[in-house]
Amino acid sequence: xxxxYYPGCSLTASAREYDxxxxxxxxxxxxxxxxxDDWTCCGASAAAPISQLLSLSLSARxxxxxxxxxxxxxxxxxxSACYLNLKKAHEALRSDAxxxxxxxxxxxxxxxxxxxxxxxxxxxxxxxxxxxxARLAPLVTRSLSGLTxxxxxxxxxxxxxPEFDDPERPVSMEPLIEATGALVHVWEMGGRCCGASLVSTxxxxxxxxxxxxxxxxxxxxxxxxxxxxxxxxxxxWQASASRMAxxxxxxxxxxxxxxxxxxxxxxxxxxxxxxxxxxxxGFREKIKP
Amino acid sequence: xxxxxxxxxxxxxxxxxxLDHVRNMVSxxxxxxxxxxxxxxxxxxDLTPRKMWRLVILERLADVMASRTFILCSACYTCTLRCxxxxxxxxxxxxxxxxxxxxxxxxxxxxxxxxxxFMQTVRHHGRLHEMAFMTGYFTAMKxxxxxxxxxxxxxxxxxxxxxxxxxxxxxxxxLDALFDKVAEIERAAAAPLEKESHA
Lengths: 289, 199
Known about the structure:
With 289 residues, chain A is α/β, with parallel strands linked by helices. Chain A contains 13 helices and eight strands.
């Protein structure tokens, strides 16, 4: 299994542990990641309102670089926002000749061309479909039995492109969590919005979304995420959300590859666990080697 | 709600042409309200998404621009997924943000600065350079209280070494040529590139 790897900006800074865990886990399952050389920002959610063409061109620049390495390759993207931007660029390049021409006109300014031949895959898609619980289960050396995990999918890996899961009632994480020996927390919030950047820019609205999710996670020992924005909203803003809700909403929040890596006996340093902002003592006890 | 006569007298380049573009996206709206019922942020909005589409169709640009509804869209795509008419509603909200920024609407100044400073950082550094971005944003806001809201989180992240300070980790690939070319293409084209796929 070979993948071109697009970490995206968050994974070089606020979500470094997501990058560490993704690389460690993929190595442990025998997959080979090649980081796209000289990748740049996908435009995040800021480019599109300013210019749709700019947003598409920024993402297409990365796809063009990936095509140079492996024209029929697949790009693995752990960040849901990056995934959606790259996916939109892929769809535009692949399905719309006029837009492909316009994007390439822009890319010519940086001496690149993109055809749309590269498939864009979210990390969860790869974990659930290419690797799967059956391949993962035999690799589990440290059972997480006794823990209940709330699978949190967020939005943009599910919508608007229903690639690998039900966009309303996602389930793709469940077999993976069960393979670790842990139980799945049954809830309705897995695919509901965390508030995204509103948590920073419009806290009165954004924090309300965080409160709703954290309240619904009561009963679980931890939340597993697959997006740096979701992770940040659910862990870094936990204290503010607790103040808003008037109750203690503290809960451990980890990235899915961290959880799977722990179950496979990978070292917690290798998985960047000391970088997480919400790891409760009970969870730390549970995962002691 | 203001009467129609209060929407002002638009000049050709003040956003009414751009609004036409959004109007085309939502013109098949049947006002069923599925978008509003699906929106996680609807309760905080001064206009529900359904009402927003109605105003767009009626070309009430001033009323649309006076609303914070599109700023409160967190791009969860639930409305886009569920819309029985298959309308690209998330993209429509996104485009309304763009119109408000182009018009430099005073009401949406903070949001505009956030987006503009973000893209400026990407233009100069290739990747999001958090220190440069936040410094630029706080300076542009000209409000000494803004940084305070972010300070506790900033300190927490810096303590963990999770802020990109720009000490050589960034790729430092300037994207000026790409940004300039896109601007040139857009100036030349009458209608901006737009479409949201319903895969």
